[in-house]
Amino acid sequence: MTCSKMTSSEHTQLTLFITHKICTQCGHTKPLTDYYNEKRSRDGRRGKCKNCHCASRRAQYAANPERDRASRRARYAANPERDRARKRAWQKANPERHSANSRAWEKANPEKKRAIQHRRRARKHCAVPQRWQVHDIILFCCYWCGANLRAYGATTHIDHVMPISLGGSDTPNNRVNTCATCNLTKGSTHPLV
After folding, report:
1. Structural domain of residue 90, as residue ranges?
2. In the predicted model, what is the mean pLDDT of residues 100-116?
3. How far apart are CA 185 and CA 26, in angstroms?
């Protein structure tokens, strides 16, 4: 009986008895567990073994790194919840590696780490992000240098006179309208320094 004349049930029964397969790339005979699933093939497995398949994919990525990055970004943008769930599952399964990766990133990016800490501190003190507070203050001159923000078309920032990181509150009497230069220069320093 040839494979083309077999019924689907006979084909399924035949594939249950097959335990090994020859890789089309390396030519070695390997068990079926060393092959990825492939619905379109007759035996339900890919032609290349996992090692050969991964090696060919790595070669493709190395040859076209920009295309690979673009496709990953598009895939993550299309499924953000699935990506977050995958990351959380990996973090739970690999807590030591996650901690090591976090420490390495913090060591390589101290400024970004400091900015994240300031945002967390602000959230803890119930501070609203500055981009949402622009409508709260109707002054159009910089509190620190007095520059007319409407005349120059300058970017308006909202600054906390006493920074939240130093114990300041997020109340209207602690927020002032400033130009970008003054706000970024002052940062989270004490107003009297």
Report:
1. 64-108
2. 89
3. 61
Q: What is the pLDDT of residue 91?
A: 93
Say if 153 falls within a structural domain: yes
Helices then strands, each counted (H, E), the chain: 8, 6
Dump pLDDT digits (tens) for 122-152: 666 654 444 444 444 456 788 888 777 776 6
Residue 62, classified by CB atoms within 10 Å of its CB into exposed (0-12), middle (13-18) or buried (19+), is exposed
Residue 124: what are its φ and ψ, rounded to 5°?
Answer: -65, -35
CA distance 54 to 102: 27
Residue type (1 letter), 188? S
Query: So what's the pLDDT on residue 19?
Result: 80
* Helix-helix angle 80-93:65-78, to 10 degrees: 100
The answer to the question of residue 20 being in a domain is no
Considering the domain boundaries, does residue 149 fall inside one? yes
Query: Is residue 24 included in any domain, yes or no?
Result: no
What total of structural domains would you count in the chain? 2
Determine the Cα angle at 160 with ends 133 and 178, to 5°: 70
Tell me the CATH number at 149. Answer: 1.10.30.50
